Fold this sequence. Notes:
The structure holds two protein chains of two kinds. By secondary structure, chain A is α/β, with parallel strands linked by helices. Chain A has a single domain, classed as 3-Layer(aba) Sandwich (Rossmann fold), CATH 3.40.50.880. Chain A is built from seven helices and 14 strands. In chain A, a hairpin with a 5-residue loop joins strand 5 (88-89) and strand 6 (95-96). Chain A is globular, with a radius of gyration of 15 Å. By secondary structure, chain B is α/β, with parallel strands linked by helices. Chain B has a single domain (5-245), classed as Alpha-Beta Barrel (TIM Barrel). In chain B, 37% of the residues lie in helices and 29% in strands. Chain B contains ten helices and twelve strands. Chain B has helices at 32-42, 56-72, 86-93, 104-108, 111-120, 153-163, 184-191, 207-216, 227-230, 236-245, and strands at residues 5-13, 16-21, 25-30, 47-51, 77-80, 99-102, 125-134, 137-142, 147-152, 167-172, 198-201, 220-225. In chain B, strand 5 (77-80), helix 3 and strand 6 (99-102) form a beta-alpha-beta unit. The longest helix of chain B is centred in the N-terminal third of the chain and has 17 residues, at 56-72. The chains are: A alpha/beta, B alpha/beta. Chains A and B meet through helix 1, strand 8, strand 10 and helix 7 of A and helix 2 of B.
Amino acid sequence: MLAIIDYGVGNLFSLSGSLGALGIDSQITAEPAEIAAADHLILPGVGAFGDARAKLDRTGALPSLLEAVKRGTPLLGICLGMQLLFDESLEYGVHAGLGLLAGRVVPIADDLEDARKVPHMGWNELVIAKPCPILKYTKSGEHVYYVHSFYARDCAGSTAAWSDYGVKIPGVVQKDNVFGTQFHPEKSGVTGLNILKAFAEL
Amino acid sequence: MLAKRIIPCLDIRAQRVVKGVQFDAVQDVEDPVHLAKRYNDEGADELVFYDITASYEERRLFTELLQAVASEIFIPLTVGGGINALADFDRVLKSGADKVSVNSGAIKDPALILHSAKKYGDQCVVLSMDVKRVDGRFTVFAKGGRENTGIDAIAWAKRGQQNGAGELVINSIDTDGVKRGFDLELLEAISAEVSIPIIASGGAGCIADFVKLFQSVPGVDAGLAASIFHFQQVSIADIKNTLFAQGIPIRR
Lengths: 202, 252
């Protein structure tokens, strides 16, 4: 059973619908026992980093989540859920992340050299930088759907794919069994479904 | 680089997709979930669901319909119609909408954009405006184009951006339903003054209209249409193939 961590951020209709369309059993939960028993974990998320981190802490699910990851259970963070995997974020103050990936989350606008619209919102091309198991059905040039104003930096080591938006936006990150997508696979059509499928097959 | 988007718009009444012809007579078109799936498969980049129901009971059914669509369609969903308060944002976002489009609700209460952007983020708030030329001036109309507000359209677009709208839908009443192309003059005038994404609406009749839109007004990010897609006069795949051949960035 795949567990989607429920900590009260964002609607999960599309995510659970995507998994359902792929024939993957999933449950939305914050129960430590269910998280410990899950064979795959997804950390979703929209909104602000500090608020989301506080909500996640309040669920009491975090120790079992981190324990499961340490045992090797594959974890996929999506959008803000991916940003939470890093060391820290500078979104409205400095907030500690989960420290599962090296790097920090910073405003896109601070690093842009030309006038571009922020949030980075819409369909952008994925450039695959190195092989990654969740990209086994995906080719460079396919489009994925992004909505975000902050991005992960100083994470070249874990970046498996990126998109160009004046700066290199890490789109897919990975270290061992910890995965993240800055874009929303559940909103990225067939390309997104393929990424979820590859993750569930791990 | 971001791809230009092609967006079908579905007007929903009594859980059916309908199309108003000449504003009054409403024609029943299709089952919304079925039509949304067709557009998803044809390569639509986003869908707009517009609630034109009137009663409380119908609105509840619309919200249930949204949940069904969000569970089966894996592209972004924008929802508009009857958005007058933060509670309406809450209702549709909890039912699977990714973005919420406000129109008359923002004219009645301009602070609605500010408050909703603060609560849900700029990316969530779409300001939709119906614009018509009155004495040579672009003017905002309310209530589905029936009421002249006297508000200058360019000033309204700038104010929407300042208040935190993440995107603008510019619907030209002058070109709507005429099918002779988008209102390039209006779109150019607004895109020169704002820096948030602009969705062009009203007037698409053929593939060439989309090519002309993106080539003539680089500040436009998306083209929206309804009946030409519903009645299969133009296919999304054909539009995208033509745009691609013209070197316009799109998702295929």
